[in-house]
Amino acid sequence: MKKFISLLILSILVIQCSSNRLRRPSGGNASAPGTGSIDENGNPIGAEDAKGSVNGSTAVNMPQAGRTLIWKRYRPLETGLMAGLGLTKDQLCTELGTNPCIDKVHLTVLGGNEPFLNGQYERAQTPTVLTAVAVDRVVLSSCGKRVELDRTAGAAAQIFKFFPLTAAKPSDDQVKQQATELYHRLLAREPEAAELDAIVKFAASSTAGDKIALSLCFAIGSSAENIFL
């Protein structure tokens, strides 16, 4: 229970720090800088072209609410975790060690469908209430596998190599280096200063290197930024 609470707290901190990247204007009367008013469908009113004139001022068409986020369904999620964590398909989450979590157990809530065995001919158009639970399970299992592999590899660790996973407490710089590596691999960007500060603050309350590594991987891998494009 303590481990779950720690993972949840770190996830909330990281998501709060990165939420501004996913925030867009909403509502029929919202306005975006340089684009004028936005209609009920999220389209700019009065924009002529990419560099046209709106109400006498130069404007650039900006991404609008509801038109910029795409749900990363089961296959992109799978390939992203495999590439980011250096895992093979059979090393990802399985049910009782046999049935793949992505292709079978959670296929429907992760945005897939199976017409032949399940009689499901259409995919869900939006994430369901169980999608977040399935994503958390798949990401946590994948991160746990990578931590296990790197713990066994020791000095030859591929991902978690910036501090010993058996260390009582890594330094702040080591935690920042490891977090930056995970941001590069899973989100393909540099972490912001506020995100690193939140991560260091969380790591200060933990006493085991492997638990910090697992928590970092889970929080970043299950963030909204990794679920939507």
Explain what you see.
This protein is 44% helix and 5% strand. The chain has 229 residues and is mainly alpha-helical. Strand 3 and strand 4 form a beta hairpin. It is globular, with a radius of gyration of 21 Å. The two termini are 32 Å apart. Residues 22-38 and 41-59 have low confidence and may be disordered.
Question: What are the key terms here?
Answer:
single chain, 229 residues, mainly alpha, two-stranded antiparallel ribbon, globular
Count the beta strands. 6
Estimate percent helicity. Answer: 40-55%
Strand residues, percent? 5-15%
**Cα distance, first to last residue?**
32 Å
Largest sheet composition: 2 strands, antiparallel
Indicate the overall shape: globular
Our count of helices gives 8
Uncertain runs: 22-38, 41-59
Mean pLDDT: 80
Structural class by sheet pairing and helices:
mainly alpha
What series of H and E elements makes up the topology? HEEEEHEEHHHHHH
Oligomer: single chain
Radius of gyration: 21 Å
The strands making up the biggest β-sheet line up spatially as 1-2
What's this model, at a glance?
With 229 residues, this protein is mainly α. It has helices at residues 2-18, 74-85, 101-105, 131-153, 172-187, 193-203, 209-221, 224-227, and strands spanning 31-32, 36-37, 53-54, 57-58, 94-95, 99-100. The strands form three sheets. It has a two-stranded antiparallel sheet with strand order 1-2. A two-stranded antiparallel ribbon has the order 3-4.
How is the topology of this model organized?
Blueprint: H1 2-18, E1 31-32, E2 36-37, E3 53-54, E4 57-58, H2 74-85, E5 94-95, E6 99-100, H3 101-105, H4 131-153, H5 172-187, H6 193-203, H7 209-221, H8 224-227
Antiparallel strand pairs: 1-2, 3-4, 5-6
